[in-house]
Specification:
The complex is a heterodimer. Chain A contains 1 helix and 5 strands. By secondary structure, chain A is mainly beta. Chain A has one helix at about 30-35; strands spanning about 1-5, 20, 45-50, 50-55, 65-70. In chain A, strand 3 (about 45-50) and strand 4 form a beta hairpin. Chain B has helices at about 5, 15-25, 30-40, 55-65, 75-85, 120-130, 165-175, 200-210, 225-240; strands at about 15, 45, 65-70, 90-95, 135-140, 155-160, 180-185, 190-195, 250-255, 260-265. In chain B, strand 9 (about 250-255) and strand 10 (about 260-265) form a beta hairpin. The model of chain B has no long low-confidence stretch (mean pLDDT about 95). The chains are: A mainly beta, B alpha/beta.
Chain lengths: ~70, ~270
Amino acid sequence: MNVKVKLFAHLRDGRFVEKDMEIPDGSTVGKLLQLLGIGEDEVGVTMIDSRHCLLADKLKEGCTVAIFPMVGGG
Amino acid sequence: MIGVDALRLFEGGAISLSDVRRIAAGEGVSISDVEKFVLAQGVWPERFIRHSGILTPKQQLQLYRSRALIAGCGGLGGNVAILLARLGVGEFVLVDPDRFDETNINRQVFSSLETVGCYKAQVVARELAAVNPGATVKCITDPVESFQFVPGEFAVAIDCLDSSASREALIERCSGAAPLVHGAVSLGCGIVASVSDTDAMKGLVELVRTQQRPGPNSGTLSYVPAFIASLMASETRKTILKLHSTLSNSWLFVDIDNLEIQGPYPLGK
């Protein structure tokens, strides 16, 4: 299936800003991170079609996935 | 306290701190009492006169009467605290069990070679007093988890913490009790959120849980907490004065080095 992936800040380094990707049907957000070579400990908020999601959530054809880096310091 | 006719004598509608101190001493009241009185009459304490045209004296008085809880007095908290003190917030409770160490100097505004080893909350309290002698500041050098408060005790709570567990504890305390402005930083990025309703606070808890990681947080640069703290101070002002905010019950992602802001995204349902 085809999904649009948006990366933010340093997650773009060596990758891309926004890209249409062909990924296996039934892939989860976590699977997408694996395909992108992004460690789960680098990731903070993930969103599917501008709604918060979990790494275990499945992606659907044509959806937009946004991946933000972890931001927890003060 | 002071006759309205006497107030007209203050040039440009402003009264200096030295005149305030003189009146306070004469009347046996506090600086805060005098300044709240003159603001109610439309006269500005001189250190806030540059707010004229941006705030009304009534809004300045509202800030002066407001109590803010600042949890965390490091990179974000120190910056937020001094910005709010200069804005004229009149009461602060600063909560931070930590002391400054050398690793803080690159980004925590009140860390210096002189303050290494000192409690952060106490150092920040001294700095607030130096710019706003009418403010009341209380320091708590215990973790936020040990701190309880009742609804209405604070006009706003400000999350400048650095652990997901502590942030979650603060949000739980705020739910139904106080609106919350949240901030976080890492590398060249930051997050700001402003929440007042219970549903949005649950959404913020979900967001905060995504930031859990083993070990210490990533580092950041000097200007990152300063920038995010400025946004937090702006949201705090709007919260206290009950002004409209596009960030209401939402969060924002800021990539400072790439000059990008994403959002606001709603929190909760």
